[in-house]
């Protein structure tokens, strides 16, 4: 089994609209101009870097934005151009909500369980319904279509429908999921949540908790995981109130290693005790206390929103955002991680600032999917990274993306046309078939 990081290709409408309460970067940068071309190229450079470390890398496509389908559902009629002009005139906020390139954060696209852990021996994938935020909820249908197109072979893959809507099963995907494993022990799935729809649990006071316990429980059932291997920790309400809207803002794990902030989970000592019982003596964890790394710095610099990657030589490397190098407490923490007795031997800092400004670091930009050789061979879409695919995609970005997008540019009907032209071409480049509604 090999892990592939499926990165979201950053879409042509990448912009800063301040859409996510509780996500401080989104709030801070709302209204600023963005650089879609630079954003997409930064994302491609991260893919190159990870692939050159010897780690599996693949790509997921952006979604059509503005979402004309959504605007039509909301009563805007006429040609595509008229729909946009009318939305711009009568309900501009709806145009902003339907223009986000937020599908780039593919950690939120789905939750995935590898075939080694599921009762029927298939890979299970559930697209996240993302019901908590409207601009993200509109991703689920297209994500479902894309995953069905890529993971099409029912012998190897089961792509479930997103969990049913409404707040009860609010699901934010793998941003709240961590799979841990040590030699000789069965893998453990941490499926975290921020609130319960049914039970009386104290949640955050200031910012919304996105994932429900009920959604996490449903994912464990759907994916046919052994209940004894599932742990359902609560995200710490104080962490959410400090801006950690997803678990992966304050914790990241890989195989036998977990690093976390003290405000990532409620009662983290008990959680670590449970993990040690299930995973044995090889399990390693590093906790940052609030004194060592104030949660404010952790949320600003995103050291936990790193990719922890298993390298071919048996060690692990951390791919962190450049903001973590610039923030002394975050940097000192990561240096401590490398110095301690655990598998992490290096930390690399990458520039994904365009995404970071909307609250998405390296870990947000990728969905981890572990595949056997047979499973990989069953995928016919051209989504696996190669230097040649990199060149193709970089040229595609340079051909179609704007340099700068000012907030008002989403009012321009030409932007929607450009996006559709670009995405139509992309589905042919990636051999995806017709996955978008405008192609039906
Ligand atoms: O859902 N930002 C995303 C960031 C998602 C980060 N993902 C993980 N932590 N895995 C969100 O809040 C901002 C869009 C805007 O404001 O324009 C946004 O949607």
Automatic annotation (TrEMBL):
GO MF annotations in UniProt: N-succinylarginine dihydrolase activity
EC number, as in UniProt: 3.5.3.23
SUPFAM superfamilies according to UniProt: Pentein
One GO BP: L-arginine catabolic process to succinate
Pfam family, one: AstB
Keywords: Arginine metabolism, Hydrolase
Gene3D superfamilies registered for this protein in UniProt: Succinylarginine dihydrolase
Positions of the UniProt region annotated as Disordered: 20-39
Polar residues bias: start-end ranges: 23-36
Source domain of life: Bacteria
Residues that span the membrane, as ranges: none
InterPro entries xref list: AstB_sf, SuccinylArg_d-Hdrlase_AstB
NCBIfam families referenced in this protein's UniProt entry, alphabetically: arg_catab_astB, PRK13281.1
Name this protein carries in UniProt: N-succinylarginine dihydrolase
């Amino acid at each position: 089994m090999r892990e592939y990081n499926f990165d979201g290709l950053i879409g042509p409408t990448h912009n800063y609209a301040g859409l996510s309460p509780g996500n401080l970067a989104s709030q801070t940068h709302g209204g600023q101009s963005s650089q879609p071309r630079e954003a997409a190229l930064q994302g491609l450079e991260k893919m190159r870097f990870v692939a050159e470390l010897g780690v599996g890398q693949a790509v997921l496509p952006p979604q059509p934005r503005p979402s004309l389908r959504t605007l039509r559902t909301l009563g805007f009629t006429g040609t595509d151009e008229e729909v946009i002009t009318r939305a711009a005139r009568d309900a501009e906020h709806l145009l902003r909500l339907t223009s986000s390139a937020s599908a780039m954060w593919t950690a939120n696209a789905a939750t995935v369980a590898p075939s080694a852990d599921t009762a029927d021996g298939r890979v299970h994938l559930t697209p996240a319904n993302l019901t908590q935020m409207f601009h993200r909820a509109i991703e689920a249908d297209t994500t479902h279509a894309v995953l069905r197109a890529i993971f099409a072979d029912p012998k190897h893959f089961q792509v479930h429908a997103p969990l049913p809507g409404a707040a009860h099963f609010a699901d934010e995907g793998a941003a709240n999921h961590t799979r841990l494993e040590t030699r000789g022990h069965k893998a453990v799935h941490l499926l975290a949540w921020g609130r319960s729809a049914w039970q009386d649990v104290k949640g955050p006071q200031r910012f919304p908790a996105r994932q429900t316990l009920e959604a996490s429980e449903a994912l464990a059932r759907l994916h046919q995981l052994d209940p004894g291997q599932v742990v359902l920790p609560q995200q710490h309400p104080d962490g959410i109130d400090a801006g950690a809207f997803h678990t992966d803002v304050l914790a990241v794990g890989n195989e036998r290693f977990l690093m976390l902030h003290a405000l990532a989970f409620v009662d983290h000592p008990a959680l670590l005790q449970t993990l040690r019982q299930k995973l044995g003596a090889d399990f390693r964890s590093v906790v940052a206390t609030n004194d060592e790394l104030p949660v404010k710095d952790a949320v600003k610099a995103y050291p936990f929103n790193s990719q922890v990657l298993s390298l071919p030589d048996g060690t692990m490397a951390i791919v962190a955002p450049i903001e973590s190098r610039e923030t002394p407490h975050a940097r000192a923490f990561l240096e401590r991680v490398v110095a301690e007795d655990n598998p992490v031997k290096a930390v690399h800092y990458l520039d994904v600032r365009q995404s970071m400004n909307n609250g998405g670091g390296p870990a947000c930009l990728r969905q981890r999917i572990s595949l056997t050789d047979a499973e990989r061979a069953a995928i016919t879409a051209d989504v696996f990274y190669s230097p040649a695919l990199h060149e193709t995609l970089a040229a595609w970005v340079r051909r179609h993306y704007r340099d700068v997008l000012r907030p008002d540019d989403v009012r321009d009907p030409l932007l929607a046309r450009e996006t559709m032209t670009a995405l139509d071409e992309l589905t042919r480049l990636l051999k995806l078939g017709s996955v978008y509604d405008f192609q039906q």
